[in-house]
Structures are given as C-alpha cells and as structure tokens.
Amino acid sequence: MSAAFVYAIAQGLAQHDPSERLGVVLKPLRKGRQPAITDLAELQRMLNAAEEDHARPITRLALRFIALTAVRPNEIRGARWIEFEDLDGKNPLWRIPAARMKGGQDRKEEIGGDHLVPLAHQSVAVLRAIWPLTGAGTLVFPSSRHAHHPMSENAIGYLLNRAGYHGRHVPHGFRAAFSTIMNEWAEQHGKEHDRKIIDLMLAHVPKEKIESAYNRAAYLPRRRELSQIWADMLSAQLPSPIVLLERPARDIGAHSRRRIPGPVPADFRFPFLSG
User: Which tens digits make up the pLDDT trace of 199-248?
Assistant: First the structure.
C-alpha cells in the first residue's frame, strides 16, 4: 500500500502516504501449512483415486513421480532429460541444478549446489513410461500446448482436486508425507543419522550448518536405500506406470481414434543418458 502511495506522490497524484504508520499495528502474516495426507494407506488410496480420474498421461505420470521423489512442484515441472544420469545403470540419479532450486541468488549460484535425488527403480519406471511421449524433447513433463514450456503449475493440483482431495492434499504435500512417514519408519527400523539424511533428501539445510559449506552429496548410498524403501512402501498398492498411459484423458466413445504410444521394449536404453 505504501509503495502505491509513494508512486502516486512522485506522479503528483497524492500529497502524502496515509499508510506509512499502519505497519506497526498490523499483525505479521502467518503462513499456514500446506495440506498433506501423512498416513501411508490413505496416501495410496488418494494416488489410486487421482490416477483413475481423467487426465493427460503426462499429468498422471508427473503425479506419480512427485510422490516418489518428494521434490518441490517447480522442480518436477522444470525437469529436463539432461538432468538424469545412469538411468540404465545401478545408480540412477536426478541432478537438479542449483539454479533451479528454491532459495536466493547465492543458493542458485552455489558451486556444487546441485540437489542430488537418487532414483528408486519405480521412479525410473515412470521415466521409461513417459519416454515415448516426451523423450524427443527437452522437458520430461511439458505443457500440452507448447512442448518447450513446462506443464501448468496447476495441473497436478487440479487432478487431486477432481479426485476429491481439495483442501486435503496439494502437490507440495508429498514432502510432508515423505518426511512424516519416513521419520516414523526411521524411529523403528532406521540407522543412526537417518533423520538428518531424510532432511537432506528434502534439500533442507540444518540450522547449525552454513549453506555454502554444506555437503549436498553426503550420505548418498544411504539416501539411495531410503529412496527405495519409500518407493517400495508407496507403490505396494499402485499399478505399473504403463497402465497410466492407457487411461483416457476424457470420456471417449466406442469409435475413438485415440492412439496410445507403445511402451519401450524390455531392452530399451535411454539415449545419451546411460552412465
């Protein structure tokens, strides 16, 4: 408000700023928590319901991928094929560039600041499923209208809403779900430092650490193990990603001309991506 009045004064449209003293009496804005389902069985039911709803295959696969990786929605939307490593090997990895991570300019320009996301075999299966649709382009999850633009920031959220989860779970909520469920698992079955490692997997920096000096590649073998444990738990009641390609985006008639791209063959290898 004050900025608007300052501009008006500069333009000769106002004499003073009546809002300049309001700041001291206004309560600070309290940012609420993102709605999230943090019970594993309910999370699986939600994913099944959403994946059975009408949506583009790319949207369904993006939903599955964000659930498996627990990254931020913008990191999913901007995912590029060149960011993935060793998808045909034993240690598949998603290297999200520091420039695409949340944070200030120092974070984005940090040397060695890429966020490393070890991929469970279920996550690689999602990438294999979507390759026939988007593998010829730059983006893994592009817009339906412009292949060189990321998918809509609302696409996954709208899918969850249509499935009946409005106000109960949002795309960002998978991070809270992963944190809650895996921390509970770690208390009973985990190893030393697992709770810290789970925070590292979410790209959280401990308060006692200096951002620029934080080792973002720490505990990578254990992170890979925890990623697989999470994927195994989450996917126990979910169909293969290939099934998500076959489900229609809208109601179709008996004589639809819709053509579903065939899955990649069993011996398929990602071009230029294998390490």
Answer: 999 988 665 555 555 577 789 999 999 999 999 999 998 999 999 988 87
SS3 90: coil
Query: In terms of Cα–Cα distance, which of 149, 64, 132 is closest to 270?
Result: 132
**Identity of the amino acid at 257:** R
Q: How many CB atoms sit inside 10 A of residue 252's CB? A: 11
Which backbone phi and psi does 43 adopt, to 5 degrees?
A: -65, -40
Would you say 141 and 79 are in contact if contact means Cβ atoms under 8 Å apart?
A: yes
What's residue 275's pLDDT?
A: 44
Sorted by sequence, the CB contacts under 8 Å of residue 139 that are 6+ apart come out as: 78, 79, 80, 81, 147, 148, 149, 150
In this prediction the pTM is: 0.82
Give ∠ CA 222-181-208 in degrees, rounded to 5.
Answer: 60
Spatial separation of the C-alpha atoms in residues 173 and 67, rounded to whole Å: 9
pLDDT-derived band at 29 (thresholds 50, 70, 90) equals: low
Query: Which ranges of the chain does DSSP label H, i.e. alpha helix?
Result: 2-10, 40-52, 57-69, 73-77, 105-108, 121-134, 155-160, 173-189, 194-201, 220-235, 241-246
